[in-house]
Each structure stands twice: as C-alpha cells, then as structure tokens.
Write a structure and sequence with these properties.
The complex is a heterotrimer of chains A (282), B (276) and C (261). By secondary structure, chain A is α/β, with parallel strands linked by helices. In chain A, 16% of the residues lie in helices and 29% in strands. The radius of gyration of chain A is 22 Å and the shape is elongated. In chain B, 37% of the residues lie in helices and 17% in strands. The radius of gyration of chain B is 18 Å and the shape is globular. With 261 residues, chain C is α/β, with parallel strands linked by helices. In chain C, 38% of the residues lie in helices and 16% in strands. Chain C has helices spanning 17-30, 47-51, 61-65, 71-74, 100-111, 127-134, 147-162, 176-180, 187-194, 207-214, 225-238; strands spanning 4-9, 35-39, 76-77, 84-87, 116-120, 138-143, 167-174, 197-203. In chain C, strands 3-4-2-5-1-6-7-8 form an 8-stranded mixed beta sheet, sandwiched between helices. The chains are: A alpha/beta (282), B alpha/beta (276), C alpha/beta (261). At the B-C interface, helix 7 and helix 10 of B face helix 7 and helix 10 of C.
Chain lengths: 282, 276, 261
C-alpha cells in the first residue's frame, strides 16, 4: 500500500508499487473525499522505482485531479534528470523527503486542530496535543438521569446523523492488540476491540462487542461524535479533544453511549442516550 | 524408557503429509520451549514421528531442555547453507527414537536465516515426519517471522498474567486468519486464582478467545526437568507430564471435549498456599 | 550530562526485566533521584501495565522520534512518586520503527532531565535489543538460576562487552529451598559461569504477579520484604558497598544456604 502522510498543509506520499497502480490506488482513496486535499502540495518518494517521464507525469496528473500539486520527488539517482525534465524538484534518495527542502517558500505552521484539518495523522497529533494540556484523568463519569428509565424516547424524524459523502468503515472481526483502524468517517466494528488495539475516526465509533482498547471519535474536532459499544470498557476514550481514562475489567453494565457534555466525556446506558444531538464541527 | 532399536535414516522414512505447528507466545519465559519439548515427546509416545525445530537462532535452548546438547553436531543454518545434510543435523532422542531434534545455531543471528528457505525446510520436513514442531523465539521480530513461515497451525502458550495475555493477543493478530490457532494456559496456580491473586483460564480466554488445548498447573518438577534435560512428558508419575500427554492426544484427535481446568491444589499451592 | 543511563536486559524472556525496571526505578525515585523509565519493547509494551499508567498514555516513544510531539508531552509522571516518569513504547508499531541513533538521541535528551534513565529492553538479541542498548552507558543483566536463562545471559553479556558496556548482574526469582535441595543453581554457580559483578539477589515472591497485573509496584507496599531488597540494590548502584544478607527457606531457622539480597 502506498502511504500518504500529512505534515501541516503538505503531503508525503511513499510509493511502493508501479506508478500506474499507485495512481489508481490513490485515486480510489481520494475519491472518498474529493475535496479534502484540494490546495495541498505533495512530495512523492519512489523508493527504488525508475519510471519514465510519461509515468511520472501521469502520476502528477492523477494527483492534480484532486487539487494536489506534486512539487518534488525523491528516489534513485537515475530518475533525477527525468524529474528535472518535468519541472519537478529532485529531493535526493532520502527515504523521508523533507518538504522544507523545496525551493518554493512555505509558511511554517504549528499543527493545530481547528485550522490544519488536512490529513488524519496531523489532526490526531493536534488533537492529542490539546488533550495533553487539558488532560482529564480519573474514571469516566456516568450520568444517571433524574427520571427513572421509563422508556426510550424515539426521535420524531429519522435524519441521517452523518454528512453525505463520508464513508463508514465496517469491520467484521475482533481487533487484536497492536492492530489499528483509522478512518475518515465513521467506524463500525462487529467484534471485540482488545486492549492494545486502537480505533480512530473523524466520525462516530460503534463497537458491537467489547471495546477494551483505545477509541478516538471525532478525531478532527467533531465534538458531536459519539462512541457506542455493547460493552464500553475502553482503556482510554477520546472524543475530539476530550479524554477520559476507562475502566477495563469492571463488571459489564450493558450497552453504553459516550459523548461530550461541556468539557467532559459522559457515558450513559444506551437506552437513555440522546441520539438527536447535532454534529458540531470546530 | 530407553529404547534399543535404531532410528531409521531420514531418507528411508516413508513420504507422508505431516503437520507443521509453531509454538509461540509473544512474551518470553512462559514455557514455549518446555511445551515444544514435552508435546513433541508425548506425540512421539503415541506412535507418531516427530521432529522438533529450534528457531531461536543465537539463543538456542531446545537442545538443553531435551538433554541433547552434547549430541548436536550441526544446526539449522548449516542445513540451510548446505554445509550439512538434514541427516547429519538431526539428533535422535535415544529415549524416544521417533523423536528428532534440529537445533538452532548459537553463535549466529536470526537475521542470517532466509525466511523462504526456512519455509521450504519446514515443507520438506513435513514430507518425512508426522509432526514438525517449531519452537518460536520470544518477540515479534524476524525470529518470529521465520518461525511461523511454513507452519499452518499455531499453539499459543500463555501464562495467567496480564502482560502475557496482551503479548499473546498481539501474536494472534499477527498470525492472521489462515492459520488454525489454539491455546495452552501454562503455570496456573488454582489456589492463587481462588484468592483472586491470579487470572483464571476464563479471564485469559475472555481476551484471547481461542480453542483451549490444555491447562498446565505450575509445578517445581518442570524446572528440575528442564535443568536436567528430562522432559516430564516421559515421566509416568508426573501430573504435568500427564497434562502434556493429554495435549498430545488432543492434537492427534483421540481425545475430544474441553480440557478440565484444575481446581485442586498444585504442589506450590501446598507449599505456599497456607500463608496469609 | 551526568545522568546514569542503564539498560536492563537478559536475552531470555520472562526473567523479570520489566518488573525489575519498574521496582528499581520506583526505589531510586523514593530515594530522591529524578528517574525516567523507557520502554524499548515496541509492539509488545508492558512497562506501562506494570506501573499502572496504561490508561494515561497519549503519546509514545515512536511519536517522539517521529517528531509528532515533544518528549515532555509523552512522558507520564507517576502519581505516587513525583520523581518518577515513564516514556511508554508504541503498541501498534514494531521495532523497526526507530533506529539505534534515534533511540540514543531520546535517551540523551532524557538524560538531561533526570539523574537515572532506566531502559527496559525487549527479550532477544535482535533489532529491539540493539535499539535498547544504543543509548545506554551501563547495563544490568537480569537472570534466573536456570540453565536456559544463564546460557542466554552469557550470550548477552558477550554482546554488551563488545559494545564496551560495564555489566552487573541481578539474579532474580531465587528459591532458596530448591537450591538447598540441589534442584536449582546457587548464586555462586551463576556468578561463576557468568563472571559478572553481582548487583543483587531477589527471591521468588508469589505476590509479584498480582502487583504487576494490578500496576502497583511491590516496592510501594509498606511491609514488602522486596522493598528492602530493591533498596539495597539501589544503594549499591549509588556506589555503596552493601553486604548481601541471607535468606532462609520457610521453616529452617538459623540455617544458611543460598544468600540473597
């Protein structure tokens, strides 16, 4: 799999297969959110590949379809003249090309959640940066409603809670320690999420099983995101920039729903959850 | 249990389609090597032909636990590099001629092993032996990757401790869906479990969710036996040996149904259980 | 930089490196030193569990190396001991995620913040091991009195000497009654084979597993005899010549046989 990483407003693309195949793969990935990366600049590391000028040009065009400008390329020495021909910067053989080595001036920006929402990875760093400063330690608060559980109030109209165009990743099977699912959109897991596993989503997270690992919903700042699980026993729960330590190993309390109220994460039994809250993006 | 018959030459063994099982754990020190040795010995005692392969290059121990270290002349890398034939490298256990050992190299590194070549070696061993048991090193690095190559079955050995369960879970994730994976819980101390000072088998499997092959209680005779190179599975009087013999029967298929989880006091429980 | 950067290693897994790192670190912190513990076991992290800080991990060693956060942001301060901090490993990555040079840099940076940096080394002698020793200036080899563990410790000591690291030995999980019965090697046997300077002898204690499961280092329990033993080890590390005291097996009054502490 070719990988795309964000650094501030820019992307680093590491290509591990023939450029044509990589371009197709990236097209499919970007097509999920066609405007998400618009305006970004990118550099690509081609590793040991030595493609012809036409292939690199086609790759650059594929990126341009989504508004991504390819500025530079790193890889084997042999491609240097080819790259120059195409008016791209050749960044040497370094495995991690340094974007700041590009000739064009680039504003240095600190990664901050509210402004630099360009790539999944950069955002998580920003979100957690915030969280570290405002760390909320201690057990998750369980809010008991004043009224007895007389019954669930059904919403009057069934409105889609997620914006159109955002993909939901559906995974069937238990996630083992060390495995991670990251998604731009919602995440649904049918199975357990074991301690040591990690779920990160820009939208909601739903686990039809025991959630015992780390879950981060609303990772790009959506404070209306929620985490729902048959058994909510996460090592750590994060929603947007709020964080709460979980209570792994306590007696199961039935399906529960976690969301933000004010500055804290609040967990209620699922039957009492308010599912009508609007999504709020920063 | 010393047999007098000579073991046949490897090339003379009839062709068969053997099973290749890797014994792994993630966490070190949970009893992989002891389990490989004893399961192998118990399998051989059922009449199957077994070869044990030590994949812990540089930190070999299977030969010690089997009591065969003095007889090792060549090791896996010698065979992979063509410096010795399989026949020359395999050490036969005089107590159980159906059991052979392919030792690891001690002064080499795991990086020296070519994964594909190792996989092929396991493949060719499967054609000669009913069971190829691969003793996996601790960790999830190249040594691990080599050890699991060529094995389509895995046995996870896990002690009832949180760290061991977490590491085992990681390994199960890395083994993927194509391999059949089963669990042995090792070093259980039922008295500690009852006092709430140790995880129960259920606690372990609540996370791992694997078919249970066996449960082995902690006992000092295991340490003694590994120091002396005399696998407990060959000791008719050892209860731990009996557990391994049961495991072998489950692997072979002559015993079905879930393993019983011991509740009576183990030796250590009798020694220390009265404290507090 | 005057910080002591000590790697705790063993070769064989399961001999008690992580437990020893946690407890020794805690005792050093109790004695007033600023201590940072580093988990170098990327992908199989356990130091955080043993110290009970798992739920507070936000950033880890790999993210520090990759520049996604500051070292200070990743360090977790222990709530019980103000001088103790932990830098956890990553769980969803593997040991190739960082290089020896990167590891050395992190350890060096930590060394500027504290008096002792203890590095918890993964089992084995592969990439993870090489990373763990990269930033260290001295080594403690942990072994149990079992043939396999000693053999592996021997291999590791060889590698440490290749790097010019001074090596000291902790013999862990000693069972004096088994030594007496001839069923276990004595400490003398171990030091003879390994010929390394003895730093400490720690007896087997069935309470330890429970404390590691719960994330409460045993040295923090008020009546723990292991606390006394670790304290002596800490004093020897500081440079004091502390005599090894004797351990008795239960029920054998006044009889000397394996030494301990």
């Amino acid at each position: 799999m070719s990988t795309v990483r964000g650094r501030g407003r820019n992307l680093e693309i590491a290509v591990d297969r023939a450029l044509g195949a990589a371009a197709e793969e990236l097209r499919a990935q970007f097509a999920l959110r066609p405007d998400f990366y618009r305006g970004s600049r990118a550099v690509a590391d081609l590793g040991i590949l030595e493609p012809a000028a036409a292939e690199i040009a086609a790759f650059r065009d594929a990126l341009a379809e989504f508004g991504i400008a390819l500025d530079g390329v790193s890889g084997a020495d042999a491609i240097a003249p080819v790259v120059a021909e195409l008016d791209l910067a050749y960044l040497g053989t370094a495995a991690a090309a340094d974007v700041s080595a590009l000739p064009r001036p680039r504003r240095q920006r600190e990664i901050r959640l509210s402004e630099e929402a360009r790539s999944l990875v950069a955002d998580f760093a920003g979100a957690r940066d915030d969280m570290v400063r405002r760390r909320v330690s201690g057990p998750v608060g369980v809010v008991s409603p004043a009224i007895a559980s007389a019954g669930v109030t059904l919403p009057q109209t069934a409105r889609p809670a997620i914006p159109v165009g955002v993909a939901t990743l559906y995974h069937r099977g238990t996630l083992r320690g060390g495995q991670a699912l990251h998604n731009l959109g919602n995440l649904v897991v049918i199975g357990d999420v074991n301690p040591g596993a990690e779920l990160v989503a820009s939208g909601d997270i739903v686990v039809f099983g025991a959630l015992r690992g780390v879950a981060h919903a609303g990772a790009q700042g959506d404070r209306g995101a929620r985490v729902i699980a048959l058994e909510l026993a996460a090592t750590q729960l994060r929603i947007a920039t709020a964080i709460a330590s979980g209570d792994v190993g306590t007696k199961p309390r039935g399906p529960e729903h976690a969301s933000i109220a004010g500055d804290r994460i609040v967990v209620v039994p699922f039957a009492e959850a308010d599912l009508r809250k609007e999504s709020v993006a920063l | 249990m010393i047999q007098r018959e000579e073991a046949p030459a490897v090339s003379a063994l009839p062709r068969r389609r053997g099973r290749a099982i890797v014994i792994t754990s993630g966490k070190g020190g949970v009893g992989k090597t002891t389990t490989t040795a004893n399961t192998g010995a118990a399998l051989a005692a059922t009449g199957a032909t077994v070869v044990l392969v030590d994949a812990d290059v540089g930190l070999r121990n299977l030969d010690i636990v089997m009591g065969l270290e003095a007889r090792v002349r060549h090791h896996v890398l010698d065979v992979l590099e063509g410096k010795a034939t399989l026949e020359e490298a395999l050490v036969t256990d005089k107590r159980v001629p159906a059991l052979r050992l392919l030792a690891a190299a001690q002064t080499r590194e795991k990086d020296d092993v070519d994964t594909a070549a190792f996989r092929d070696l396991v493949g060719s061993l499967r054609e000669r032996f009913d069971y190829v048991l691969i003793d996996c090193p601790a960790g999830i690095e190249k040594g691990f990757a080599n050890a699991i190559a060529g094995a389509d079955e895995a046995i996870i050995v896990c002690t009832p401790e949180v760290s061991a369960v977490r590491d085992a879970d990681r390994v199960v994730g890395l083994l993927g869906d194509e391999r059949s994976v089963k669990l042995i819980v090792n070093r259980l101390r039922p008295a500690l479990v009852r006092r709430g000072k140790m995880l129960s088998v259920d606690d372990v499997n609540a996370i791992l969710r694997l078919p249970l092959l066996g449960v082995i209680t902690d006992a000092p005779d295991v340490i003694v036996s590994t120091n002396r190179g005399e696998p407990v599975a060959l000791d008719a009087a050892s209860s731990v040996g009996a557990s391994y013999r049961e495991i072998a029967q489950r692997i072979v298929g002559t015993l079905s149904g879930p393993p019983t989880v011991p509740h009576e006091k183990s030796f250590f429980d009798k020694l220390f259980g009265s404290r507090k | 930089m005057s910080a002591r950067r000590i790697v705790l290693t063993s070769g064989k897994g399961g001999v008690g490196k992580t437990t020893t790192t946690a407890n020794l670190g805690a005792v050093l912190a109790k004695r007033g030193h600023r201590v940072a513990l580093v988990d170098a076991d990327i992908g199989l992290r356990n130091l955080d569990l043993v110290l009970g800080v798992e739920k507070r991990i936000v950033f880890d060693l790999v993210e520090v190396v990759e520049g996604r956060c500051q070292l200070r942001q990743a360090l977790i301060k222990d709530k019980r001991l103000e001088n103790l901090s932990i830098l956890p490993a990553a769980q969803t990555r593997d040991k190739t995620a960082i290089s020896e040079l990167q590891m050395a840099k992190v350890v060096q940076e930590l060394g500027e913040l504290c008096d002792f940096v203890l590095i918890d080394c993964p089992a084995g002698i592969e990439h993870g091991f090489r990373n763990a020793i990269a930033g260290a200036s001295e080594a403690i080899v942990v072994t149990t009195p079992e043939v396999s563990a000693i053999r592996d410790a021997d291999r590791v000591i060889g590698k440490l000497h290749e790097r010019g690291l001074p090596v000291r030995l902790i013999v862990n999980r000693l069972r004096p009654e088994m030594v007496r019965a001839g069923d276990m090697l004595s400490v003398e046997d171990v030091t003879d084979i390994l010929s390394a300077e003895l730093l400490g002898i720690i007896p087997e204690d069935e309470e330890v597993i429970d404390t590691t499961n719960k994330g409460e280092p045993i040295v923090l329990q008020p009546d723990s005899r292991l606390a006394v033993i670790y304290d002596k080890i800490a004093r020897r590390l500081e440079g004091d010549l502390v005599p090894f005291t004797t351990l008795r097996a239960p029920g054998f009054f006044g009889r000397l046989f394996g030494k301990a502490s």
